[in-house]
Amino acid sequence: MRNYLQRKLLGMLPLLLLVSAAAFALVRLMPGDAATAYLNAMNAPITEAALQKVQKDLGLDKPVAVQYGIWLKQALSLDFGLSYMTKRPVIDELMRGFYYTAVLTGSAVVWIIVFSLPLGILAGRHPGSFMDQIIRAMTFLGSSIPSFWLGFLLVEFFSLRLKLLPVQGAGTLKHILLPSITLACSYLAMYTKMLRGGIVEHSGRTYVLYARARGLKKKTILWRHILPNALNPVLTSLGLSLGSMLSGAVIVENVFAWPGMGRVIVHAVAGRDYPVIQGYILVIAAVYIVLNLGVDILCAMLNPGIFTEEET
Amino acid sequence: MIHRILEDKICRFCLVFLLIFTCAALFAPWIAPNDPNEIHYTARFAKISREFPLGTDYMGRCILSRLLHGARLSLGSAAGITIVSSVLGTLLGMISGYVGGRFDRVLMGVCDAVRAFPGMVIVLVSVGILGTGLLSLCLGMMAVRWVWYTKVTRNLTRAERKKEVVLASAMAGSSTTGILFGLIFPAIRIPILAVATLQFGTALTALAGYSFLGFGAAPPSPEWGMMIQDGRSFISTNPSMLFWPGFCILMVIIVTNILGDRMQEMFELVRK
Fold first, then answer.
1. Which of A67, B172, B244, B245 lies 20 to 30 Å (CA to CA) from residue A289?
2. Whole-structure pTM value
3. Interface contact flag, A152 B235, Cβ < 8 Å
4. DSSP, res B235
5. DSSP characters over B39-81
6. Given B117, B214, B235, which is nearest A19 (Cβ)?
7. What is the mean pLDDT of chain A?
8. Which residues pair with B231 in a beta bridge?
């Protein structure tokens, strides 16, 4: 176990270095040079004197390797510089956005658990039944529907027609309802399907037959034996989904004007605000990698067998 | 196996449906009733009529014509992404699975590295370097997607490599290329085709999503995601502007999902 953890933790380092290099290279490789982009983002006139001053201020006159070193050192202390557009520290903007994105993702996870658990069990208990068919159709629709379009349909129906919920923004509990459901929808469908598959598969195993032979009630077998086994893969991929939901929230946030990281990044891309783009890439990648590591460790704790299997 | 798919009723229905959409995209300039970018200021937000079968948008542009021309961009780009990444990923995966050794280890390391980041990050890097646009978006998406095919193909190839036919063929002196394309590829093409079909659907949504965010096609391009972005300001007054492009995306994705699932199911059945 310790070996495994060490290897996983060490494996993280090159990945983080890789993404930091990519984020840094972004500014080096973009069309035009950084100084011009900076002046453009500020709407300042581009003169020779201004260019030289900016190059000095941003440290662009030093060798690339030195620049990367300085930048990386600052990035490690969470200093990504100032946003070209708002002139505020990038990390402040990202952190405020991160809070809202995390709230959104967290609420979506609640929906996923609340819906896919009962739906998956209902469908998996009697495969082929009418209920199963209906749920199957629903999961198909849920996983196919594009989130931005679903978001607008929900707004059109609940906010504009019925006037029950606010169209956009954040603040109250009512505000988070539509965005979180929109974000949860495709994952919800996926996990319902996965749980159903797990239950169906495990119901056919010999240990279930044995439990029946022992005279256990069907209900007991389902809750005590089948479900824990079927939930195992669902839990681990839910951890993986968390990372992709954090980055996937971008679209939902833009549909509902939810003030998360997704809003920040879309503004930054539109305005070519490079420090913000760099900061976003680093933060999202780091969170994603750490989450995946967490899932790996959790998975290892749940199935100690993978240590032996992995060497094949 | 291919003929079995063609004989299956569900698959045939899906294929016909996709064929219709493909034809609509291919022949858009001839079918479309109007120029997709022609502005009719007198007919803004026109209702459904003979001249404008699905009405017009806020600039008086014919929605149906825009949908048809947008199909070329949206479906074309999604197909391009899927074809390039599946061919590249499959080739690398087959070589990696058959040859093994150091090449396999290095390639799997690269795959793991790519998968360690959310796809969004790689697309952002691509868009950041090359500037926003449909092409840089597609390149960024390809850079993420070949990995999926490589993993699947590699594992399938490794299973296939152990079969006696392959061993015998190798002993008889067949070339590696001959074995890869003559024996292994025919055995594994169906699951890869199924993955590609499913990936086409996700590519289409992702592409429309990024365009919606403004990373992809620029206005006045009738790309479907772009059309939804265009329509969002008029959601309270004219929801049809954003309804139709989303509906088209949904239809295509449902069909590709059914087709891909069905193909995977049939392959599993045959293997058992």
1. A67
2. 0.85
3. yes
4. T
5. --GGGTT--S-SSSTT-B-TT--BHHHHHHHHHHHHHHHHHHH
6. B117
7. 83
8. none
